[in-house]
Amino acid sequence: MNHMLEQLGMHAKDAEVILRNLHTDKKNEVLCAVAGKLTDCAERILEANAVDVENGRKNHMPEGLIDRLMLTRERIDGMAEGLRQISELDDPIGEVTGMKKRPNGLLIGQKRVPLGVIGIIYEARPNVTADAFGLCFKTGNAVILKGGSDAIHSNTAIVECIRETLKESGVTEDAIQLITDTSRETAAEFMKLNQYVDVLIPRGGKGLIKAVVEQSTIPVIETGTGNCHIYVDESADLNMAADIVMNAKTQRVGVCNACESLLVHENVKEAFLPVMAERLRSKHVEMRADEEAKALIPDAKTATEEDWGTEYLDYILSIKVVKSVEEAIAHINRYNTKHSEAIITNDYSHAQKFLDEVDAAAVYVNASTRFTDGFEFGFGAEIGISTQKLHARGPMGLLALTATKYIIYGNGQIRP
Amino acid sequence: MNHMLEQLGMHAKDAEVILRNLHTDKKNEVLCAVAGKLTDCAERILEANAVDVENGRKNHMPEGLIDRLMLTRERIDGMAEGLRQISELDDPIGEVTGMKKRPNGLLIGQKRVPLGVIGIIYEARPNVTADAFGLCFKTGNAVILKGGSDAIHSNTAIVECIRETLKESGVTEDAIQLITDTSRETAAEFMKLNQYVDVLIPRGGKGLIKAVVEQSTIPVIETGTGNCHIYVDESADLNMAADIVMNAKTQRVGVCNACESLLVHENVKEAFLPVMAERLRSKHVEMRADEEAKALIPDAKTATEEDWGTEYLDYILSIKVVKSVEEAIAHINRYNTKHSEAIITNDYSHAQKFLDEVDAAAVYVNASTRFTDGFEFGFGAEIGISTQKLHARGPMGLLALTATKYIIYGNGQIRP
After folding, report:
1. How far apart are CA A245 and CA A258, in angstroms?
2. In angstroms, rounded to a whole number, what is the distance separating the alpha carbons of residues A125 and A140?
3. Which of 83-112 (A) contact B at CB < 8 A?
4. So what's the ipTM on this one?
5. Residues from chain B contacting residue A237 (CB–CB below 8 Å)
6. Among B residues 342-401, those touching chain A with beta carbons less than 8 Å apart
7. Strands B384-386 and B394-396, sheet pairing
8. Which residue of B has its CA nearest to A116?
């Protein structure tokens, strides 16, 4: 085994024992101290970040990625503010639920505990570094970070600031560790560090997530893409429908909960599609439609089979006319990525049917898919949006970074 | 992709849609019908099983495995009874929990839903076939089974009976499918069928579980080995301690929740170890002890480093003297397999400390580790005991075979 990774793993395991039973007051105090330190160290972090940005420019990194990579004093303040917000959230660790007395007198309950050691693999966004630390620390987990080579100087500077604060606070520095070797080989070995890492969370694009799911032997929480649909039912309030489609498509296009495909019941296509198309045109949304929809939207392109399965993350919308709520549900379940789906309807049984039968992390009646988000759901934080079914599904708050253990109080019980 | 597996996967996905919303009454009716059918078809199943047993004998299968493989009329009745018991359990599917109104009027709740398609890979125990079907069907999941080649005739006969009953009941036969190609290549391909299978549960020995964890790209629920400890604290009631150790070590030795290692506080070693050793001798338990314990148990062998980490599943017990509850906890956290651990004590703070700091699925005060079991915990069923931290930890009942989805009721909300 890679010696450096093994060392990191052992340090994380030692830290886990300390973090597991840290009092909430102490954790909150440290989170606020780290927030202050980040602001104090802004100069140092910005200098390191300038090196990454310069390297990025030299390597012809696209401007969109440079923007994600670049830190400013405001962005550092934002990272600090994020940590302060996490300090204000309820600590889920230690709660005991469902404690019941068995017929033999055993008292059995479930206690919420940290997962242990969390590995996070991410790309060139240095703000994830502080954010991931905050969420893992609040939930009593040690974290090992593996960021992209493009952000290595920024990440190193941020992690140093955090570790210095941890030391000053008398808490183990190894609550956070950064893998500074950014090679692919090391990443691949990290994904098989089952002995030391309890769960791996990839944060980044499709390619990164796919690589982690395929290569990791450690359990993975998969956060993923969103090919989200809005179905406008026969009984929909068409003004409401148009408002929701505009919001879900254009309020922010590059996000996983944005709408990518519009389904319309055939009985309202004439009343709805020309008006909808006009509003979409005003925001320069490219429309790709099936034959029936195209007949009402002359400037639409023809949608191909590939369009139905595509998450555009752009000002593009696929449009299809369907004969029934059943056809809409079947189409969605065939092409969606199990993220967020909405029906606009005033029909009680169609609403219930859609909620029951659409297979997705979040299913909406008469609301925008853009609400699928940890903050909008009231969790006060978000680690990502899980599109898998195990452990956590949908927006993940602090609870997703915890496990349970059974605690059993007896007075001499033996099994007959 | 393997064409046969792809066909099975597509059939399972079709079945998933039907099973997802099957009413509880119908599911219970089918479970009881399958139970009746298994008894009716006993002759056919026994004939098929006889072929497997004969082949096993030809291939020099050890008698212990032959015993697990062999079916009798009583064992088939037992399988049927198991299905009837599952029919009597509460159906977890459909429950909505934690529904809350957000400040913007959105009503957000979590609905319990099936996982979808569950893959189960198991060894030569044909009773798992009916059992796995019952648990998956009750929770609205389609199941794809991959049993061992040793039990192929038995498994085929049982699955045929179940599928015939499903057909007669008007429910899709594809609620259960068996992979009849028992080659390793097919098993390996099955473990990468992410497109169709939502979770994979290996049921069997260490080797099988390790292979699935390492090869599967589908999320796995790991059930595992138990290197379980009992720590007898200074303040323990020593009679209670001896009763619990005897129960946990000898009531059934081949199971994962049996005790494999005994830790004793040095201040009670003289009062406890000779008496304990005498009782263990009466059941022919081999003792492997550290120097301090050996001084009080002359016939004990010397424990090696390897002993501390070994799950014997046999009449063998390792024994160690420790100086404090802290040393006991550190030793346990170093060598255990995160299964079940117990402290015998009358000291309040030691009991709480042990519950807080020992990292395991089930931590006991003053009770036998043998209680870690779905039935003993009151779940009415058990799929296995999870030793991982994600999704489910400890004994898994029906809930472990479910997921959640967010359902959101709005009235036109868009994201500002």
Report:
1. 9
2. 24
3. 100, 102, 106, 108, 111
4. 0.92
5. 412
6. 351, 355-357, 359-368, 370-372, 376-378, 388-391, 393-395
7. antiparallel
8. B389
**Measured over all CA atoms, what is the biggest interatomic distance in chain A, rounded to whole angstroms?**
79
Closest partner CB to A377 (pick from B108, B351, B364): B108
Place of tokens 């390297």: A55
Tokens of A55: 């390297």
Touching B: A residues 233-292, CB under 8 Å: 237, 240, 243-244, 246-248, 251
Surface of A (310-349) touching B: CB under 8 A? 333
Q: For residue B399, give the nearest of B191, B89, B146 by alpha carbon.
A: B89
Which residue among A198, A361, A366 places its CB closest to the CB of B412?
Answer: A366
**CB-based burial of residue A57 (10 Å sphere; 0-12 exposed, 13-18 middle, 19+ buried)?**
exposed
Q: For residue range A90-127, list pLDDT tens digits in order.
A: 999 999 999 999 999 999 999 999 999 999 999 878 98
pTM above 0.95, yes or no: no
Locus of tokens 């793993």: A9
Query: Encoding tokens for residue A306?
Result: 């590939």
A227 has a chain B CB within 8 A of its CB: no
Residue B43, Cβ density class (10 Å: 0-12 exposed, 13-18 middle, ≥19 buried): exposed
Tens digit of pLDDT for each residue in B291-345?
A: 999 999 999 999 999 999 999 999 999 999 999 999 999 999 999 999 999 999 9
User: Would you call B410 and A357 a contact, using CB atoms and an 8 Å cutoff?
Assistant: no
Side-chain-facing half-sphere of A301: CA atoms under 13 Å:
11
